[in-house]
Write the structure tokens for this entry.
Amino acid sequence: MRIISVANQKGGCGKTTLAVNVAAALARLGSETLLVDLDPQAHATFALGCTEKSSETKTSYDIFRAHFDTVELNFEDLIINDRKSLSLVPANMMLSAAEINLGGINGAATILYRTLMKPFFNKYEYVIIDSPPSFGFLTLNSMYAADTIIVPMDLSYFSFNGIDSVYRVAGLLNAETGRKPSIFFVINIYDQRSNFAKELDKDAKSKIGPYLLPTKIRSSVRLREAAKLGKTIFEYDSKSSSALDFYNLTSEILTADNKSMNAIIKEFLIHAPNAGSVYVLGDFNGWQKSDANRLAKLENGEWSAHFTLDKGKYRYKFLVDDEWKTDPKNPKNEANIYGTIDSIVEV
């Protein structure tokens, strides 16, 4: 079994559409696939036309309720399997109650994973989890369970904050639990006619490198129509460009972990609690100030951003409110041609 979590704290990035149609593509390729709706808004349940059926079954909330109440759960009661090779664990608003209750439980982030490891679920080759648009305990359950995390990015520079947030949360999970899923990104709702979209694509490739999957999911009214009717894109229009996009993307997801990555994810971090803006500029991004190179401010007054660096040696500095600063956490530095000092990072 391979577990794939679709996660992003940002709403409106097409997360559910991606989760539903990747699951559908896997099923059409002949793989027994389970889609777990872990969002209290139950958008994946709606997108598969299962809202009424979910009232007749148990939901993903019952996975957590069984843990709270220490009762046995009949897993068959969770499953809606009205499609060939594609089953669904639906959701409803009761998941919000689970989110609240999980805060005081030891091992709260592991409940979904431990459930999916039960023998009942061995029949599924793939499990796709649609996460809520937040980094609460439900998303932590989704990310902990995952072998691979897919992060959809829409055409907004706010998406770059999502990149850093995913890496920070994944880093915390790794530190606490030792789980380290691979993370890949997808540009979603892509308008290929837009110069802004092309510029964002360029910046994303610079920031994420090989962790940005090549296929972009193009913006399409067919996808919206399919979801409204409770159908996958393959059921609604299997010959559409969107169906082709999802076939190509699914193929890339299946082979992504087998790629030889000659790059690392590097976090740049500086403490500047009173700063209004912080950028990291260096050889790896052409020393160009842009939203893609802006750091996100954390609650402790530090600013953070993650970049993908190929093997090599790089000069860099922080630009803190238009003032250049070397990295106080990095003792390696060298003089530059301007008579000042640059910080040095070697991969």
Q: What stands out?
A: The longest helix spans residues 158-177. The mean pLDDT is 90. Residues 263-346 form a domain with the Immunoglobulin-like fold (CATH 2.60.40.10).
